[in-house]
Amino acid sequence: KRRYRLHEIEAVLAAAGLAIVRGSYYFGFVFPLASAVRLATRNTREPRSSLKRHGSLTNGLLGALCATELPLFPYNRVAGLSAFVLARKV
To answer: N or C end: fewer C-beta atoms under 10 angstroms in the chain?
Structure first.
């Protein structure tokens, strides 16, 4: 698996001749939880999906975290589960 950091994606886009307008991460508030789960299951031998059905409480809490983070989205260049870059053709 290959995971890209924001600055790596921006470098690829700039090398392709695009002008970077802005870049940021999303799901930054969920990132510590996802990292803990990934670290805890790192050494498991059998392949299995981490997708499973969760209850309304879990979905409500995660939804609230994401909604709380939304106003900070344009400014988050620290960490997150998804990287977004807005670029213009030069």
So the answer is: N
Q: DSSP of 9-64, one letter per residue?
A: HHHHHHHTTEEEEEEEEE-TTTHHHHHHHHHHTTT--S---------HHHHHHHHH
Q: 19: Cβ–Cβ under 8 A, 6 or more apart, which residues?
A: 87, 88, 89, 90
Task: Give pLDDT tens digits for 13-54.
Answer: 999 999 999 999 999 999 999 899 888 888 877 777 778 888
What are residue 2's phi and psi, to 5 degrees? -120, 125
